[in-house]
Predict the 3D structure of the following.
Amino acid sequence: MTGITYVRGDATSPHGKGVKLIAHVCNDLGGWGKGFVVSVSRRWPEPEAAYRRWHRDRAGHDFGLGAVQFVRVDRHLWVANMVGQRGIRTGSKGVPVRYEAIDTALGTLADKARELGASVHMPRIGCGLAGGTWSRVEPLITARLVDRGIPVTVYDYDGRGANPPAAEGS
């Protein structure tokens, strides 16, 4: 039992009442245009514009692996741009996902969720184009968010089913 709620649906239309944080993983190159970010941009222009400014002005700023940018898109809705992948292609250093960066970003996300009294909503972060595996990401979410009492909902948009296979060792 992970304490994460799994649902079929679109993470850009989060379920429930109250303040919500939609979390997703971005790359460290300033690229935005494939994967979940397409759905984000269809709903709101602000997260993409803010991310591109953040990357462009990165000198002397906190842009980089593990960093998080919070963008308010509605009265009770925020998008968290989490830099959790190195580049956009699999190469000699493996897949783009960087689990340590996601872990760091989730810690920052947890602090913001506590501050706002927010629930967190996300697709299976780091497991699409970034090439990560859910069996490595799910425990990070549990440790950083669920164990701190923050409600987390993970949305499966592509019909993989409402519940994931059990993580290794469970």
About this structure: Helices lie at 36-43, 46-56, 99-116, 134-144.
